[in-house]
TrEMBL record:
It comes from Streptomyces sparsogenes DSM 40356. Keywords: Membrane, Transmembrane, Transmembrane helix. This is Secreted protein. The chain crosses the membrane at residues 12-30.
Length: 247
């Protein structure tokens, strides 16, 4: 066997070994990434989750409003990648308590019963105004600060990951002042899931106040983080006001 042939064989063997190692490293990285994602969303292989949304009041049949449907579609790839299965349920259908399976609750808290119940129990420091002569419908008050919607210009949405006191699977809330904000919040969650998991941990809770800017022109595309309001939102109203005054 000539030196040239030996060199070719050695080079081919090195290439094969390198490709095998590269594939193994890539596969290990993909598995770790998938495992982190499963832990963050509470969606192990074969698990079930529920997507809770509004009924479309303009339709005579059970259907989902356009922006909510697009928001749920944004979650579809994540759920599939985790190897989980999803059920879509209307907000006014009796459902079991949370914690047994991951829940994504999307909508307007002034009209979405399930979302309103979760916020009252898990985010007692958030007041959502039903609308009267003094306050606009959908305005949020958090830690003594009011956030009013300016339709088409500035609209707010709360994006939260919460768990019950005894642990269990998380519930994700996207509670917005206008339908377009629900879609913006879910898009923010999906795009930033790795960063959120690193910051808050696989089992951590958070509540973020996001601002959707100029939705009339840009739809759900321009989103800004106003503040991490976890502390104020999860505190009882009295404690929240006291903390705000002490600052």
């Amino acid at each position: 066997m000539t030196d040239t042939v030996q060199d070719l064989i050695a080079s081919a063997a090195a290439l094969v070994v390198g490709l095998a190692l590269g594939w193994a490293v890539h596969s290990a990285y993909a598995r770790r990434k998938r495992t982190r994602e499963q832990r963050f969303f509470g969606l192990p292989d074969g698990s079930e989750c529920v997507l809770v949304t509004h009924r479309d009041s303009t339709s005579a049949h059970w259907s989902i409003p356009r922006h909510d449907a697009l928001a749920l579609l944004g979650l579809a790839a994540v759920i599939e990648n985790c190897g989980a299965h999803a059920e879509v349920a209307p907000h006014d259908t009796g459902l079991q308590g949370f914690g047994a399976r991951t829940e994504f609750c999307v909508g307007d808290p002034t009209a979405h019963r399930r979302l309103a119940a979760h916020m009252a129990n898990l985010l007692p420091g958030v007041a959502v105004h039903q609308g009267d002569e003094a306050q606009e419908r959908g305005a949020f008050t958090i830690g003594g600060t009011e956030y009013r919607p300016e339709p088409g210009a500035v609209e707010h949405v709360l994006l939260a990951r919460l768990t019950a006191a005894d642990g269990g699977r998380p519930v994700f809330l996207a509670a917005g002042q206008r339908p377009v904000t629900h879609r913006a919040a879910i898009r923010h969650l999906v795009r930033n899931r790795a960063r959120l998991a690193r910051k808050y941990g696989a089992q951590g809770s958070f509540c973020l106040l996001l601002k959707v800017v100029n939705s009339q022109a840009y739809g759900p595309d321009v989103v800004e983080l106003v503040a991490d309001v976890t502390k104020a939102a999860t505190a009882a109203p009295g404690r929240s006001r006291a903390a705000h005054k002490s600052e």
